[in-house]
Amino acid sequence: MAMSCGEKADEYMPSFRIEENVLIGTEEEEEETHPVCANVGELVLNRLSSKPDFVGQIDASTGQECTYAEMRERSVKCALWLRKHGIRKGDNIGILTDNHLNTCVPIFASLYIGGVICPWDHVVPKLSARYFLSLMTPKLVFVNEESVKNLVAAAKEENIQVKVVVISSLPGFVSLADILEEQVSRAEIDGFRCAKIDNPQDLAMICCSSGSTGMPKGTELSYASLYHCITPVEEIHTKNEICVWVPTIRWHYGLTLCIEIILSNAKWISFSDDNINEVTLCKIIEKYEATWLGTDPSFPKIYVKMNIFQEHLLPSLRKMVVSGASFTKELHETVAKILPHAQILQCYGLTDAGGLCASQAKNSKPGSCGFVSKGTRIKIADEKTGVTLGPNMRGEICIKSKFMMNGYYKNPEQTKEAFDSDGWMHTKDIGYYDENGEIFYVNRISDIINYKSINLSPAEIEGVLELHPSVLKAVVVPVPHETDEEHPLAFVQKVPGKEVTKEELHDLVDENLPWYCHLQAGIHFVDDFPRVSTGKVDKKKLKLLAKSYVN
């Protein structure tokens, strides 16, 4: 589960209807100020030009500021350099960097010239670099200096010719700093014009899935998809806010936020995620009086479990937007009680869906993902029969929207599998909606545990385990069983300095969940969890580890 930009503002009450058990986000008939085929880069460039003195970014580590005028000049210089070196509309451009003052420069420049943005991890092992290059075959890659060696070696092994631009500096390579220091006349900068996008389905970016259950898939997202994701501005959560977020541009969410903040007149407090922790994040929020935080559930969970709130009550914060994983009702209520001055909003979306699909409004139920977004249709389908289900019936979440992906890059077979004959995209997420139309996420289908033909949700068991004050994180996986199909096994990470026994946790689950949810394969304590390069828990490794324990 992942979220992207374009979330509806809390002041905007959801407008939707339910027809034949399909949730339909209604859309008022109104003229668009730009056609959907407009180059989104042109919208960005116009906004940067309209408020030259506005401070759009601050580097949290140095306090250095960057105005719209500086962002405009840097991004236009980069776009001119790209054109000069033969990079054209439709060319794939890799961007492998973290969050800093110049993160936006190659992103905006790529959009200006009609390039296809291909983001990836900023710290990349050689094997991962080989996969990225073979999948994307970029004409040029912007990359952090620490990953240049592996990227160049991977290109040689894959026999791929690619231009490399280092974000800071490295002997023997062109750097972004070199590009920005080149002498370009004022007339050339002011006379710059963005490429025209004739077909709204032309690709704007290829964003990859998390890869937590397999190799990441490249998701083709068009200029029309990006346009609908970031407009209209009056309905965006970040409007006029001072924003802090953790995701890098590796994620569709982090990438589109870089664009959204320009259109929503927001200020971005940027920082690298390499050395960030929850306490540091709180200090940044307090120092710069940030009003908006975008995060996955791990921050609020640790914020509560580690009692960080006792020293950091974040008085400036007005909105915390949570997405990316299950955000339980209990945790939602606890955070809302600790931070009564802030709205805690959960959203649901996918990279494959092109962005936001559902979002909470004021007074949404804790634990829900809110209501279907404008221009989006959601239904719940029976996994086996495909029949559309009614309220409070669990099934697969299926989506239709204006901003869905074109397909999976270079993967027609998986593209075909993702859509049914009626054009519905099957998310492989389990969920339901209630009688009021609020949507609830339950689990990934691939994570569901089959016990005696009963489908168990690991997220529900994890949620109960994490109710214990000594449990920092729990991950429940299946292990094969000769007669019962599968049994659930829990890996548990304790809060540092706190203790809990396996017996206590077994009792907690037994008291709060039905008999078939009991942890019959046991509980194992871990210091940390294996993770894939994107930071998500590597469930494939955990399943193998669990199987070895049982054997």
Précis, in short:
The protein is α/β, with parallel strands linked by helices and 551 residues long. Helices cover 28% and strands 25% of the residues.
Tell me the overall shape: globular
How are the strands of the biggest sheet laid out side by side?
Answer: 4-3-13-12-14-15-16-17-18
Query: Residue share in helices?
Result: 25-40%
Radius of gyration: 23 Å
Q: What is the CATH architecture descriptor of the largest domain?
A: 3-Layer(aba) Sandwich
* Structural class by SSE content: alpha/beta
CATH topology of the largest domain: Rossmann fold
Main beta sheet strand tally, sense and closure: 9 strands, mixed
Which homologous superfamily in CATH is the superfamily of the largest domain? Answer: ANL, N-terminal domain
Overall mean confidence score, pLDDT = 91
Reading off the top of the CATH hierarchy, the class of the largest domain is best stated as Alpha Beta
Q: What is the number of helical segments per DSSP (H or I, 4+ residues)?
A: 16
- What low-confidence regions span 5 or more consecutive residues with pLDDT below 50? 1-12
**Share of β-strand residues:** 15-25%
Q: Tell how many strands the DSSP assignment holds.
A: 28
Number of separate domains:
3
Query: In angstroms, what separates the terminal alpha carbons?
Result: 32 Å
List the helices and strands and how they pair.
Blueprint: E1 16-19, E2 22-25, H1 40-50, E3 55-59, E4 65-67, H2 68-84, E5 92-96, H3 104-112, E6 116-119, H4 126-136, E7 140-143, H5 148-158, E8 163-166, E9 174-175, H6 176-181, H7 186-190, E10 203-208, E11 218-222, H8 223-230, E12 242-245, H9 252-263, E13 267-270, H10 278-287, E14 292-295, H11 298-305, E15 319-322, H12 329-338, E16 343-350, E17 355-359, E18 371-372, E19 376-381, E20 395-401, E21 407-408, H13 412-418, E22 425-433, E23 439-444, E24 449-451, E25 454-456, H14 458-465, E26 471-481, E27 485-494, H15 502-512, E28 523-525, H16 539-550
Parallel strand pairs: 3-13, 5-6, 5-7, 7-8, 8-9, 12-13, 12-14, 14-15, 15-16, 27-28
Antiparallel strand pairs: 1-2, 2-19, 3-4, 10-11, 11-21, 16-17, 17-18, 19-20, 20-22, 22-23, 24-25, 26-27
Helix pairs in contact: 1-2, 1-3, 2-3, 4-5
